[in-house]
Every structure is written in structure tokens, then in C-alpha cells.
Model the fold of this input.
Amino acid sequence: MIVDDKKVDKRDLGNDFFVTVDDIGRPKAQVVADLMMEMNPDLEGKGAFVNENVNDFIDTNESVIKDAQMVVACDVNNATAVRLGQLCEEKNVPLIVIRQYGMLGYIRLYKPENTIIETKKAQVVFKDLRLANPWPELLQFANDFNFETMEKIEHTHTPYAVILIQALQKWRDTHDGAQPKGFAQLN
Done:
């Protein structure tokens, strides 16, 4: 539902891409609702509009706001935004407040907290990249990288798996071929 009590004027032609010269003098809410339905056929029959001041509409239609799936408020003052936020909070309805100042503006999303409780214990999953026992082609590929002669830019483009394979080989060389038994040993 689109709520606005203004009529389309010449100034709107440069600010609102929905309106055209033919729309001057028509209720802005009706023009925008009609064009929104044209853009999105799923809105067919749902494109209701109300030619009324936003604050007056809030006073007389609190239940409509509380039953909405989402409320989008454009260029409303802070008092109206706070009031809408309070109404939306009661029924956990998301509120998006959009304000534009020429080329600048902001978009604020207000949604009360949603609590999600995970009933299952988190499982620790260890990823096996086959780095401790790489297949021959991967080992040959990793050994082709020489970090001593490599330029810095080449080093930054080296796959992480190659770095890990070479680091593990160095560890084994200095520890009689043994594998590290955990992260504590690597420090």
C-alpha cells in the first residue's frame, strides 16, 4: 500500500523516475502504485494506494501497519520514523527508512532481534586437503616453486596449498620425518 497526500508537480519530473508530464496534478500515490504494478505483475490487485497524509494514516490505521510484512518509509521526518518503528516493533515487522538529499541519502533497516537457538552441538569438521600425503603430481607442482628466488609478486600469487606442503616438508626434515602432532608444535 502506498500512502502519500501530495499531487505530482513539475518538480517531481526531475526527482522521481516513475512520473511523467502526463501525471502532473494526479495523486502521487496512485501514479506510483499503478507503475509499480506495471513493473511487477505479482502486485496485481495489491497495488492499493491511499491519498492521505502519512501521519494521519498512521493515526487511523495502526492495525494495517502492524499486519504488514514490511514497511518502507521514504522522506519522512524523524518523529514519524520513530513512531513507525514503535508500531513495527510490536509485531516484529521490518521497517526500512529511506531519506534522500539530492545526490546523498541513507537507508536504514530496523528489525527487532531474532533469536535463533541451535539445538544440535556444533561438530568440528577437519578439512583434509591431502597436504600431509599429497599425490605425486601435487607434490611435483609444489616442489616447482622456489621461494628463495621468487619475486614478491610471484610469492603473493602462490597457492596456499603449495606453501603448506613446503612448510610441512621443512618440518619433517628437521624432525626426523615426523608429522606435527598439533598446532602447538608449529609455533
The beta strands are 2-3, 49-50, 71-74, 95-101, 104-110. Residues 144 and 162 are 9 Å apart (CA to CA). The chain has a mean pLDDT of 83.
